[in-house]
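User: Structure tokens for both sequences below?

Assistant:
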Amino acid sequence: MAPEARIKAFLKNSATALCAAIVVLSSFSLGAEAARRHHRSHHHHLPAQPAAPPRALPYPQLPLPFEISGAQYLPLPWTEVKGWNDDDHLAAYKTFRASCKSINAQTGTSEPKALAGSLNEPCNAARSLELADDAQAKAFFETNFAPLRISRLGEPDGFVTGYYEPVLEGSRTHTDVYNVPVYRRPSNLFVRGYKQDSVSLPNKGPVYRKIGRRKLVPYYDRAEIEDGKIAGRGLEIAWLKDPTDLLFAQIQGSARIRFEDGTTLRLNYDAYNGYPYTAVGRILIERGIIPKEEMSMQKIREWMAQNPDGAKELRRQNRAYIFFREVNLSDKDEAVGAQGIPLTAGRSIAVDKSLHVYGTPFFIEGELPIESDRARTPFHRLMIAQDTGSAIIGPARADLYFGAGADAGRISGRLRHPMHFVMLVPKSLDPASRAAKLPVPDPRPSEKIAKLFPQTDPAKDTGKEPGKDQVKDQAKPAAAPAAAAQGKSDTVAVASPVPLPVPRPVMEPVREPRRPVKNRSHPPQ
């Protein structure tokens, strides 16, 4: 064979052998990889990767030291409570002890409110203290309570009105003169969650009347009751001369009816018909009949007496209607409040029952027209929450009780004034000591840093079209540097908003599907 032919044959055989070797090696590597996968899937499961921990909040989720819905408050030292040293603390202490009798008698869980059952501690301390000195009574309140300035959120002061117990002329029977009925609670009046014969029914929320055994419909309003919807059913307790007398007795929540034989009947609130209270005085102001600065209960009475037809229409604007019950009290006893104890003239107040606990002391300070319509009598008294009313709404809202009779009615009818409220909180709930446990927030960034790095939430900004407010906001940064350049030589560049960091998403590990393995029979070696 020629040398060239031998060389060509050698190269051809070498190439053939090299290709065969490559094929063998590749098949071996594929088989080894398949074997490794088979081994891992049957003998070594992939460890599950732990989920990414949630982002830690900058501050712990701790409860607020003291919280009343819709209220703002400021702890004060006793030296900054204006008029505190000038009050009759012994009179306030006696009224507080009267409330403690009801508080100490309570059993079961405490009310879900800011003070809850914390009044038990100062009441237990007062149980054995028969104080007869004003200085000792003052020391008792300073030892067991902490003063807290309180008002509605965004407002500097609270608001007070007055109420009293009217003394009215009446009759036990219907006559031509006494023809206005005073009704007790009807048997078909129904409140969800209460038995029909319950001693105490709420003064807020819906009220129904039963038709048959199951059907419930809203109860009659004032106009329907005055037109005789419940007349002739034996519900009449007594009869009055004037429907205006009945209206004001219902507004006050209690009354004394004197009969011609000299006896007196004492009445207290028992239930209402489920409609919200509408102030007739506010309607007269809105209609321009009585100026706001001249409004008083006496002005309303005078207008109603001069306009009987208009008085009827005005009464029916207040759809709420009050039902009474007889109480066994003598002429010397004061009216009984919602706490179930006799009120104290000049010391008891009605508060919002949904926010406050009966027995809570409030120091109320300001100026009131006590002596006359235009008087500015200094008023600084420690009052005790012992009553409530449907029109008393808010954390710093109180109705001051002035007693019974015409003089008390004239004083209470003049009151519609802003006042300072200081709530006395038991030391166990002192918000100043509780607030010390809360972490202090980071220092606020400077104005320059805040302009350079304004914080925005990308989740809120995505998918929104620029509206009028956004167009205005986009125009403001352009005007700000120009104004700064006029006033200062150095201009500050405003950076684009820095998006807030987003938590890393949790990535679940991807598991490969298990492949079925065929059992192979290995030949014996």
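Moving on to the next sequence.
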Amino acid sequence: MRVIKINTNPTYNVLVRDGLLNEVGSLVNQIKSYDRIAVITDSLVEKLYLDKVVTSFKGYSNQIFTYSFPNGESSKCLAELSKIYDFLAESQITRTDLVIALGGGVCGDMVGFAASSYLRGVDFINIPTTLLSMVDSSVGGKTAVNITAGKNQVGSFYQPKVVICDTNVLATLSDDLIADGIGEIAKYGVLEDKGLFDLLLKGKLFDNISEIIEICVRIKDEYVSGDVFDKGKRQLLNLGHTLGHVIEKDSKYTLAHGKAVLIGMFYIAQKFAGSSEIDLILQKIKAVAKKYNMPIDYKLSADELWASAGNDKKRHGDYLTIARPYAIGDCRLENVKLGAPINLTESVKESKFDIEIIPSKLSGSICPPPSKSHLHRLLIMSAFCGGQAVVSNVVLSNDIKATLNALKNIGADFVINKNNVTFSGFNLKNNAVIDCGECGSTFRFFIPICAMLGIKTQFIGSERLGERGYEDIITAMGSKVKFDKTSGLPLNINGNYDMDEITINGNMSSQFVSGIMLGAYASNKKISINLTGQLVSRGYVDMTIQTLKQFGCKVVEEKNSFAIIPKKIDGKQYDLMPEVDYSNLAFWEVGGVHLPIAQDNSKQGDKIVLEIVKKAEHGLAFDIDISNIPDLAPIFGVLLAKLKGTSTLKNCARLRIKECDRLAATCEILNAFGIKASIVGDDLVVVGGTVKGRVIVDSYGDHRMAMTAAILATFADGKVTVKNAQVVKKSYPDFWEDYVTLGGVINVVNIR
């Protein structure tokens, strides 16, 4: 006899051998001499094995009471459970007595739940009579019944005293019931293999059945013993089940559990296809399905099934945890936002992938995205406020993560809790390394901040970030701060800019000007900023001034100069929330979705998108000067493409020094979609026309180009593929989820 110890608390054994039904009485009485024993089975198993089990108790003093319910998944319900409670009461079963489940997974699940809840717990033994229940459901202590909302929605964790597997009973199973168990065995094969696929695919199943059962039970023990309550590793045992349970419910439980699980595994593996490891999983599942005459598809697609998975037990808030296969022996738990494609997991969002878009009209409503520009400023000011500050509705884009990491590396004390960041103090460091990633705001804000705090700092980040150069801030601070180069990264600075006046060129980047203002607050030093050249992107400097005033600073503006007079109030508490991000809102506005926005006094220059989109309603071409709103240029290219006639985006020079050359990229994307566009000097000329589909476009490694292509695709006449679509995480990590919420139809492909 094979004896497998299950290392839960309490422990118990799983016994595997032929002929064990004849020894049930002996095996039970080795545990305890129970006075009353209730044996509960279904109508089919009753005819086959109930008498044999009852007879095994002859010679023992146990009083045996029996009950059967109609065979089938439809009996696994609250109504039938109530009848079992009545039977136990009528049989005068007490807490010192025993309940035995004799049957397949339905019986074990429901009777186990009855035993766990009747009188708050009666001892329970499981005698599985199907292959599925022997290899899976009888072990681990999960008990449950189904309700209208879904499968296994009401249940408990309750371990049996012993599990008794008589392999002789498997000979009476139909091919369908054998296949039902094969689905779960294949699951264990994908999770760990341990020779299971060879045993399934080579030779006759029953020649190796005891070995197969033992392998599956031992694998399950590895996953269950350290996670009885299904909070971590055990959830991997749900591989294929998220979609499988929906299939079962949709089929009104006419499709058996194991078959549904096999389809669910195949579907989920397909969704993450693209590697040789996933190809091998698909190959193995196909081979198993072929040998045992099992389906690997269903009338509903994976996406349609996923849309109905919201009531799954693994849901937490707006997310659902799925088991994602990477390779045989390598499956991992990953979270997916409900409403997003099933393979757009949080982990995938950190990988590289492409998006296939089926053109569809966008409509509906989402929560408008918070302003990344405002968030940078709020977070920096909060870190230095001298009291406690809570910033809420924080979207952790890559750029915002860069600023938070920069603050942490120079001494800020804060805690992130979901979408809130709470600041509680500052312990200034003398040296720091700041990884800006691709974030120009972090880079250009923290150079003056660190210089004015006297922090010896090394700045690292993407190659593109350093290409733009930083001569303006070197010229402004070079008398007091040493810079080891004039362009490129890494950049090392050393010194302390402690002067009360600074002169800087304002016509290249307003971010250095804002950085000096923020540095004045951080260092608590009054400073006068003198500008040479015309200040570009004035709206963002106004946003900085507005934020400074929110924290008690005085800002005096004169012609071509600003005086910053910090005023910190120790112990004051700030509760802060960022404005709406008009630069990201622009994508939805141009896409035809006009989100409700509360009246605000935002200084964002990009707020003009509301006026421009309104102006475009007449459908006729017009020109747009984007010199002070460069972030809107790509999406305004889409807007002009829909107008009749020739329009021009004017003064686009600054687009060439963004994350990519956005002027060239916008022109190329428009042309790829069949829209005639050309660059004339620093202008982009766009001739409105029909947007063509069946195209593949690159994101150019730029979040705004990916989102621009996505909106343009909604007007196309055929499928569109956006390559390297993961780049949206730089500023708008939930863009694709919001796109789907608003009616966009996408497939995540080529995950790598």
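User: Anything stand out in the second?

Assistant: The radius of gyration is 33 Å.
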